[in-house]
Design a protein that fits this description.
about 400 residues, alpha/beta, Endonuclease, Chain A, 3 domains, 16-stranded mixed sheet, about 40% helix, globular
């Protein structure tokens, strides 16, 4: 009996610690979160939806770098394409090119010996967002989910792909991997460069923002766009605002559909005012419970008149939203509470009709490779399904 009470007391203390840690950590987080507003820029842009095509282009541009390569990824795996990526960075560093590599402390799978080999070759390496006192639990949940590459200050990449074989269509369970990633040249590259250097400063307290060598003179491109960085705040308001501006159509593509109450309310309001709302999610899941967490939102939206598509041709990991033919949002943020309230994210708002048309063409292709869902697809069929959905609802903030 005493042992039982002791176990209960230990569990109660742990739960209480987690709650206090989270609440106080969240308060500190919001107090320190920076709100950066980048201006509208004009850039030339290209979109990649297939990993092999993206990696061929990215690696080719890295090989041509002459001055500096600055890269941030949430995930770098320990597999074939990751080894190729690491070898390429070491080769460039040995050539005398400045190489800085920033990876998330939780997301990365790089081994210590790999990191040491990078440093030995001259690559400047750092982890971002290491858990720290006094709020260990909360800080372990706040991740840098951005994926930024800047080459010689004038070529930039941003989007949903990480570095790993699964993103290169080499995972039998999830291939082909479907994602959207942007390549950018023109004046917008200055903001990607600045955001990377801000994250580098945050990670190791080295401030390089005043180094003019990283900011070459850039010419204007043809596509109006704006980068929007968020730090576990502001993203919810951004998404809600974009939804409220829709007058005819709204398309959302996301691997994880777990909106906040505010965003969900805006979606229902959009349907009520006659906006055509389409949601594209994967049929397959790459994480436990994320599918079940979405059901409580998809069911009422289907009842309200939204169209929901489940992507069947591999795994769908894109982060995209189109508002009428006026605005397109592509970036690193998922349509979920973790991206809205915990992660550091970076999105790109695009205002060019021809580019939005191209994105919509890709979305149409992806819908043709999808199953149009009905309410029965999200019904609870047995006690285990009900249990998983209840569990997912309980921890949806962290999925």
């Amino acid at each position: 009996m005493e042992i039982g009470w002791m176990i209960f007391l230990i569990i109660a203390v742990i739960v209480l610690w987690v709650i206090i840690d989270f609440l106080l950590g969240r308060k500190q987080h919001l107090a320190k979160a920076k709100k950066i507003v980048f201006p509208d820029r004009y850039s030339d842009m290209q979109i990649f939806a297939k990993g092999p095509e993206l990696f061929d282009d990215l690696f080719s541009e890295i090989k041509k770098a002459r001055q500096h390569i600055h890269i941030l990824f949430y995930i770098i795996k320990d597999d074939k394409i990751s080894h190729e990526f690491v070898s390429l960075l070491k080769e460039k560093a040995r050539e005398g090119v400045e190489v800085r590599l920033l990876v998330d402390w939780v997301g990365s799978s790089l081994k210590r010996k790999t990191i040491q080999s990078l440093k030995d070759a001259g690559v400047k390496f750092a982890y971002t967002h290491k858990p720290k006192f006094p709020f260990l639990f909360y800080s372990s949940q706040v991740r840098n989910h951005r994926k930024i590459t800047v080459i010689d200050g004038h070529i930039g990449y941003l989007g949903g792909f990480n570095i790993g074989d699964e993103y290169n269509d080499k995972n039998p369970k999830l291939s082909p991997w479907r994602d959207y990633h942007l390549k950018l040249t023109g004046e917008g590259a200055v903001d990607l460069q600045e955001e990377f250097l801000r994250d580098w400063h945050c990670a190791n307290k080295v401030n390089l923002l005043q180094n003019k060598a990283y900011f070459p003179e850039l010419s204007k491109g043809t596509i109006r766009q704006q980068f929007v960085p968020t730090e576990g705040e502001a993203l919810e308001d951004l998404i809600a605002t974009l939804i409220s501006e829709a007058k005819q159509s709204l398309i959302i593509g996301t691997p994880y559909f777990i909106p906040s109450k505010k965003v969900f309310d805006h979606l229902q309001a959009a349907i009520r005012r006659g906006v055509s709302v389409t949601i594209l999610v994967p049929y397959k899941s790459d994480h436990i419970l994320v599918k079940e967490a979405s059901y409580r939102y998809l069911r009422p939206l289907l009842k309200d008149g939204a169209d929901v598509y489940q992507y069947m041709k591999g795994f769908y990991h894109a982060k995209v939203m189109t508002i009428d033919d006026n605005i397109c949002d592509i970036g690193t943020a998922n349509f979920d509470k973790r991206s809205m309230f915990l992660n550091y994210e970076l999105n790109c708002l695009i205002y060019d009709p021809s580019f939005i048309k191209e994105v919509k063409h890709i979305l149409t292709e992806d819908m043709l490779n999808s199953h149009k869902a009905s309410l029965s697809d999200f019904s609870r069929v047995n006690w285990f399904s009900s249990f998983k959905e209840t569990a997912a609802r309980t921890i949806s903030f962290f999925l």
